[in-house]
Amino acid sequence: MSSGYAVVGEARGRYEAWSPVRGSEIIADHLAMEGATLPILHAMQGAFGYVPQDAVPLIADALNLSRAEVHGTMTFYHDFRHEPAGKHVVKVCVAEACQAAGGNVTSDRIAKALDCAFGETRPDGQVTLEPIYCLGLCSCSPSAMVNGRLIGRLDDEAIDEIAAECRS
Amino acid sequence: MSARIYVPGDAAAVALGADRVAKAFEEAFRARGLEVQITRNGSRGMHWLEPMVEVVTSAGRIAYGPVKARDVAGLLDAGFLDGKGHELRLGDPEEIPFFKRQQRFTFARCGLIDPVSLDEYRANGGYKGLERAIELGGPATIEEVFESGLRGRGGAGFPTGIKWRTVGQTPPQQKYIVCNADEGDSGTFADRMIMEGDPFTLIEGMTIAGVGVGATKGYVYCRSEYPHAIKAMNAAIKVARKAGYLGKRVAGSDYDFDMEVREGAGAYVCGEETSLLESIEGKRGLVRAKPPLPAHKGLFGRPTVINNVVSLCSVPFIMANGAKSYADVGFGRSRGTMPIQLAGNVKQGGLFEIAFGITLGELVEDVAGGTFTGKPIRAVQVGGPLGAYLPRHQFDTPFDYEAFTKIDALIGHGGVVIFDEDVDMARMARFAMEFCAVESCGKCTPCRIGSTRGVETLDKVIAGQDRERNLAVVEDLCHTMKLGSLCALGGFTPYPVMSAITHFPEDFGRGRPLSVAAE
Questions:
Q1: Taking chain A, what is the end-to-end CA distance rounded to the nearest angstrom?
Q2: Is residue B465 one of the residues assigned to a domain?
Q3: Closest CA to B175 of B27, B294, B317
């Protein structure tokens, strides 16, 4: 008997294609909430892998907001994607505690191993590499999150494993 | 009774392979036909020993660590289930010097109990604080918190009791308790650890706040980078609601209180309280000008208590044991304990809860054991990306709000990031400005434009271009940002920048540091 906290990974395969009907359903599920905008945007991204442009007017209508307000909220936050991510998503912490433990060198190695620059999705759509400011793993840095899975004390072996995972 | 082992489900332990270890144990037990219960507990906070597995024996709990999945078979062969010898055996986890030296008030249950078992929470002192608050009533509860001397653990250090009083004195209406769990500071993880390891403490703390000020609804605004914490909080809220500890007539009293978790979306500035409120309301996380204070016009324009996770988690202890038992420890005007987080290039990293007053040097040299790389410590950043870099000659500073203010530094949320002698302080100063530029909400000019100009100017300094003139520009920018910014993001970014320039001038082409020159 055991209970775990395994977190579901972020991988392209599990996302649905955008449909206005499904989008409206997601909005309807959240209408009873106070301040529903962020929960709806999260739910959209959870379902489609990004927040489709077509979702913005639907959300605005349902919440009695202007499109500009919804667009403004969505673009303020680093989390919300405007287009689908790569098949694998690698987030590497670049904050001070990770830098103190050699994070700058590690980040460069990961970018090289994945053949992908930070903030970009590789042209073949296989991997998205993003900088992240702190995963709260500062006592076992440098750290990263690969497809939702946490990795601490990144070393060359871990980087090789990440690269292998991103080839699949 | 079947045997029981603990494998932490804490995110740091998981990042070091705890899920694989738990799975390896599960498979080994099945293969050997053993009936063993595996509990995914929180972390005890000794992260260099994670994954630290504990087994319940007749002589109490015995710890082993750091355990890798490939160690499992060997451990079982060596008699791990009876607590027998093995090279990874650490003995009683509470006798490990790092742990034994602590004063665990707030984190007493973290790592000890099954995080989502209400029975275990109650068996270890849980909900005694709420019972007393209900008995005392709102005003007396607020006074108890005031008397404890508790100050906001998020960074500002504002007396929690005064915030509560202000909200308590507003006329009855919809009021809110908002928990700031947007722990964005690099080097901090106390909020994450307690939400994952002892989530009922936060629920109880927020419920007590609700009873105190007359609020019936609470929100935990947790950053999206903490999926484990969000999951643990949601699981615990469900259990508490089912048991009558949330909802109508909490614990059979006349008070109503319910709460939910809201997920952030990757904006550091939302850790600033007014920006956080805007974010819950569904808007861009723009900082609000104060006044009005959130205590008067907070969430949705209603009176709102907004406190950090650790502040709220300190309340159950205070209510259960009395204000005096908390206020009795501490240093100067900093009363009680602080969960200090030791991070970065650290040998023994983790969470260390102790009364205020311990010196920075004791913390980083004795408790943390210096650097992981084994090289001498050159600088320590305390208080996150907005905290100052401190050189060795300031290591005698006691951990205390006022003592840190006196040396142009801050203790913030208690994060201590250690750097060895390889650190380039000019690069760290530039990073501080860059971080501010990336995360600025854009509302006020000093922060929005000052940070970008800061990056450009520091780039010139680093390139050796007109160094003195450009450093003068950086100093001028810092002065403007410090005095003219709307919130701590722009207002405190000068701390890391100026402390780097002041204490490590040689990294900016200014010769030897004063501390060395004087020797």
A1: 32
A2: yes
A3: B294
**Rounded to whole angstroms, how far apart are CA atoms B32 and B206?**
45
* For chain A, percent of residues with pLDDT exceeding 70: 92
B17 and A153 Cβ atoms separated by less than 8 Å: no
> What's the CA dihedral at B129, B130, B133, B137 to 10 degrees?
180
Domain C-terminal end among B301, B327, B353: B327
Co-location of B279 and B387 in the same domain = no
Q: How many CB pairs under 8 A join A and B?
A: 182
Q: What angle do CA A76, B300, B153 make, to 5 degrees?
A: 75
Reduce the secondary structure of B257-277 to three states and give it as a string.
EEEEEEECCCCHHHHCHHHHH
Has residue B389 been placed in a domain?
Answer: yes
Tell me the CATH number at B61: 3.40.30.10
Interchain proximity B428–A96, CB inside 8 Å: yes
CA-based Rg of chain A, rounded to a whole angstrom?
18
pLDDT computed for residue B511 by the predictor: 76
A102 to chain B: closest CA residue: B345
- What is the Cα–Cα distance from B433 to A130, expressed in whole angstroms? 20
- Both B335 and B323 in one domain: the answer is no
Do β-strands B176-181 and B217-222 pair in parallel, antiparallel, or remain unpaired? parallel
Across the beta sheet with B304-308, what order do the strands follow? B258-263, B217-222, B176-181, B304-308
Helix (H) or strand (E) run with residue A163 in it: helix A156-167
Could you tell me if B87 and B135 lie in one domain?
no
Q: Three-state SS for B61?
A: strand
* The token pair that represents A21 in the structure block: 């009907």
Say whether A78 and B184 touch across the interface (CB within 8 A). no
- Return d(Cα B386, Cα B376) in angstroms, integer: 24
pLDDT, one tens digit per residue, over B82-99 is 999 999 999 999 999 999
Domain A88-167 architecture: 3-Layer(aba) Sandwich (3.40)
pLDDT at B180: 98
Q: Is A154 on the interface with B (CB under 8 A)?
A: no
What backbone torsions phi and psi does residue B37 show, to the nearest 5 degrees?
-90, 125
What kind and span of H or E run contains A132? strand A127-132
Domain ranges, ordered by start, for chain A: 12-76, 88-167
Reported as a single tens digit per residue, the pLDDT across A115-155 is 999 999 999 999 999 999 999 999 999 999 999 999 999 99
Q: Which of B226, B414, B436 is nearest to A135 (CA)?
A: B226
Boundary of a domain, candidates B100, B133, B151: B100
Q: Which of chain B's residues have a Cβ under 8 Å away from the Cβ of A41?
A: 265
Range of the domain at B510: 425-517
Same domain, B317 and B340: no
The answer to whether residues B413 and B271 touch, using CB atoms and an 8 Å cutoff, is no
Inspect the interface and report whether the beta carbons of B423 and A137 lie closer than 8 Å. Answer: no
For residue B307, the SS3 value is strand
ipTM, two decimals: 0.93
The total number of structural domains in chain B stands at: 4
CB-CB neighbours of B23 under 10 Å: 17
B31 with B122, same domain: the answer is: no
- Do residues B352 and B363 make contact, with C-beta atoms less than 8 angstroms apart? yes
Q: Looking at the structure, do residues B34 and B151 belong to the same domain, yes or no?
A: no
